[in-house]
């Protein structure tokens, strides 16, 4: 399994969860990279579903700049001052079935548009992220 069920939100981790909202502007099953806590029950994050694959890859490349061994760690160290992607505030009380995606498998989840789908990353994406084909991602 490439994720774990989680009751806690950790900074620098990727999560997929169901979000109970009546707002049409919120993704009901986002794939979120957590940036910061925003009050007692809230956190701010980037929903990768809102961006095309090229932007998702650029975000991972940016994170790799500060986390050379990022794909072998639990979560990534945050240095996100230069990230210019819009963020959203999520209320933890509206989340259910929260899954923390293991960072060493995130490429498998960002390479397919839509909901949480595990796919084998293609060679071009691995090359763009400087990941050896024989790594634990393949």
- Widest sheet: strand order? 1-6-2-3-4-5
What's the N-to-C terminus distance?
A: 14 Å
Query: Which consecutive residue ranges, at least 5 long each, have pLDDT under 50?
Result: 113-121, 132-138
Radius of gyration: 14 Å
Number of domains: 1
Q: Classify the helix fraction into a percent range.
A: 10-25%
Q: State the helix count.
A: 3
Total strand segments? 6
- What class, by secondary structure content? alpha+beta
Strand coverage percent: 15-25%
- Principal-axis shape equals globular
- Characterize the main sheet: 6 strands, antiparallel
Give the topology string: H per helix, E per strand.
EEEEHEEHH
Mean pLDDT: 75
Fold and architecture overview:
The model is unreliable at 113-121 and 132-138 (pLDDT under 50). The two termini are 14 Å apart. With 138 residues, this protein is of the alpha+beta class. A six-stranded antiparallel sheet has the order 1-6-2-3-4-5. A hairpin with a 4-residue loop joins β3 and β4 (42-47). It is built from three helices and six strands, in the order ββββαββαα. Helix content is 18%, strand content 24%. The protein has one domain.
Brief synopsis:
The protein is an alpha+beta fold. The chain is 18% helix and 24% strand.
Topology (SSEs and partners):
Elements: E1 3-5, E2 14-19, E3 31-37, E4 42-47, H1 53-66, E5 88-91, E6 95-101, H2 106-110, H3 123-128
Antiparallel strand pairs: 1-6, 2-3, 2-6, 3-4, 4-5
């Amino acid at each position: 399994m490439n994720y774990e069920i989680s009751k806690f939100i950790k900074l620098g981790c990727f999560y997929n969860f169901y979000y109970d909202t009546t707002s049409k502007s919120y993704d009901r099953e986002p794939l979120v990279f957590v940036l910061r806590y925003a009050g007692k029950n809230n956190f701010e994050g980037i929903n990768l579903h809102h961006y095309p694959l090229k932007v998702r890859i650029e975000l991972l490349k940016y994170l790799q700049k500060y986390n050379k061994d990022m794909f072998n760690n639990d979560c990534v160290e945050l240095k996100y001052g230069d990230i210019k992607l819009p963020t959203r505030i999520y209320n933890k009380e509206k989340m259910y079935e929260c899954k923390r995606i293991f960072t060493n498998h995130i490429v498998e989840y960002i390479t397919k548009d839509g909901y949480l789908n595990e796919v084998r990353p293609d060679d071009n994406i691995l090359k763009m992220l400087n990941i050896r084909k024989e790594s634990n991602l393949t």
